[in-house]
Amino acid sequence: MNETISHIGVVDKVFQNQIHVSIVSQTACSACHAKGACGVDSESQKLIRVACSEAQSYSVGQKVQVLISEQTALLAVMYAYILPCIVVCLALVASTYFVGEILAVLISFTLLALYFIVLSKYKSVLHKKISFHLAHIA
After folding, report:
1. How far apart are CA 50 and CA 62, in angstroms?
2. What are the residue boundaries of the structural domains of the chain, listed by start?
3. Which of 59, 70, 74, 90 is the most exposed place for a label (fewest CB within 10 A)?
4. How many CA atoms lie within 13 A of 28 on its CB side?
5. pLDDT tens-digit profile of 73-115?
């Protein structure tokens, strides 16, 4: 399970030890023949910050390949989606047993907000665990 996920991006900004890369995230709509008439096309531009010791070897506007290991991507999905879902579900089930439904929902959302506040406090630790890499495109 050492596969790598890659996207083509364009260097947006170059700093001393960091590069900002813009990538265009596309859904399956891009391959659909009816996308012009549908109106559901969900193409969005994302900005990715990549720590890079060789930042000066990249220039603004240059096309690059943004890489992340599949294992690291799954870890990011776990922190961003799976754990918050578990927190909300467990809090909702547990608090419904003791209090009414409305209060249980408020407790669940409060715990969800606390989860993301704690996650943001440990942002520097997460940046070390979840990191992107760049490769030049020939």
Report:
1. 14
2. 4-136
3. 59
4. 0
5. 899 899 999 999 999 999 999 998 889 889 999 999 999 999 9
